[in-house]
Amino acid sequence: MKKKLLAIIAVIVGIFFAKKKISDRQAEEDLWNTAAEE
Asked: What InterPro entries would the database entry show (predicted)?
């Protein structure tokens, strides 16, 4: 039971960090695009 709970937490944390990384990269790209336009 405890192992199952840890696995679920690990998956949630993994998804959270993956989303954070993707949104950070997206924000960085938007920044470059804005800078290029000006």
From this structure: DLW39-like (IPR047990)
Q: Is the pLDDT of residue 35 over 80?
A: yes
Tell me, yes or no, if the pTM score tops 0.70. no
d(C-alpha 19, C-alpha 4), whole Å: 23
- SS3 track for the chain: CHHHHHHHHHHHHHHHHHHHHHHHHHHHHHHHHHHHHC
Residue 24 and residue 17: Cα distance in Å, rounded? 10
